[in-house]
Design goal:
There is one protein chain. Helices cover 37% and strands 12% of the residues. It is an alpha/beta fold and 352 residues long. It has one domain. Strands 3-2-1-4-7 form a five-stranded mixed beta sheet. Strands 5-10-9 form a three-stranded mixed beta sheet. The radius of gyration is 23 Å and the shape is globular.
Length: 352
């Protein structure tokens, strides 16, 4: 009879432990599923769309027969669920129809219903998006292209999600970006360049892992590690930078490659900061105007605010920034916060 110290028993116990770990670990530590690659059909369809947008953008506003041109902000909603904050955004936009357009890219697999708001919104032809893939880059470029095609007066493009809320009134944001519409719109239209508000970071602790997420040398020779940047997914881009993104091909061929390390793969947080830092670093703010709380992030998701956290003090705190601009938007808010947010909308959020 074998003793408890027998090497055979130790080996058997080790084998059994490994077998049970292999069998049950996925239930407790689910693995990320490898995203599907972007199909050739989708790629060609997008390239055609981007080409159309860049051709149309070459037409000058003065040649379009618009008597009193007013610069507009295009709000780009990227969503995979119901737009629960539609009533809050409706109040935000109310009375400013001449100065904005809304475009919504709703993941077709999520069956998002049209928003129940009184403002006109453009649901653009959308394609499926997945985390840890370049599909989110494609969706954001698609939103930019549709907005450029739709209205030549869209001169700023603000990307937000279904979990974003405004922290200021529409007038405050418009005047901060463009100025007084009655006095400065023509001057704004005639200016050759406008700054984009996009976060660009070079010292993020996980940057090395993110750079090699597709393989050790996968990004070379087009993109060295020193050129690789990270930033917030949500931005406000000027039209000239939106067009630059639609025309770009070289970096896109690298960022659309599948990742081997899905836990370090966030293409939408890398492509835009990297491209604009290489193409026009002086024309970018290097900071975002969307406030996000990463103090207790889980699986790549930031802190989610709940109803009991909503207060005037929270709104004032979320506005505070270290730049010359106050934060315009904030995320991530749970659906249950809609009621308390609506209660302080007029008295706090839209009172600047």
């Amino acid at each position: 009879m074998l003793s408890s110290s027998s090497p055979f028993l130790y080996s058997f116990a080790l084998f059994l432990s490994l077998f049970l770990l292999f069998l049950f670990a996925p239930q407790f530590f689910p693995l990320r599923k490898q995203p599907s690659p972007i199909s050739l059909e989708d790629e060609l369809d997008d390239l055609h769309l981007f080409h159309q947008a860049t051709v149309v953008s070459s037409l000058k506003v003065s040649h379009l027969g618009i008597t009193h041109p007013k610069p507009k902000i295009a709000f780009l909603f990227l969503t995979n669920s119901d737009l629960v904050f539609a009533p809050l955004w409706e109040r935000f936009f109310q009375g400013h129809n001449q100065f904005y357009n809304i475009y919504i890219h709703a993941d077709p697999s999520s069956k998002v219903p049209p928003p129940k708001w009184a403002i006109s919104a453009n649901f653009i032809p959308a394609k499926r998006t997945e985390r840890a893939s370049a599909t989110l880059i494609s969706a954001e470029r698609r939103l930019l292209a549709r907005a450029i095609l739709d209205d030549p007066l869209n001169l700023y493009f603000a990307l937000v999600s279904q979990h974003c809320i405004p922290l200021h009134s529409f007038q405050y944001i418009y005047k901060s970006l463009i100025g007084n519409p009655a006095e400065e719109s023509r001057a704004f239209l005639s200016q050759p360049s406008h700054k984009s508000f996009i976060e660009i970071l070079a010292n993020e602790p996980t940057l090395q892992n993110r750079y090699i997420a597709r393989g050790k040398n996968a990004m070379l020779p087009e993109l060295t590690f020193e050129q690789f940047k990270v930033g917030s997914q949500f931005f406000i881009l000027s039209k000239r930078h939106a067009l630059l993104i639609l025309k770009e091909r070289k970096l896109w061929r690298k960022f659309r490659l599948p990742c081997v390390d899905l836990n370090s793969c966030y293409p939408e947080e890398h492509y835009f900061p990297t491209l604009l830092s290489m193409a026009d670093p002086e024309g970018c703010s290097h900071y975002t105007l969307t406030r996000v709380n990463w103090t207790d992030s889980v699986d790549g998701h930031p802190h989610t605010y709940h109803a009991l956290e909503v207060s005037p003090e929270l709104i004032h705190t979320l506005r505070e920034s270290n730049s010359s601009y106050s934060y315009f938007f904030a995320r991530k808010f749970s659906p249950e916060t809609l009621t308390p947010l609506m209660e302080i909308a007029d008295s706090v959020i839209f009172r600047d």
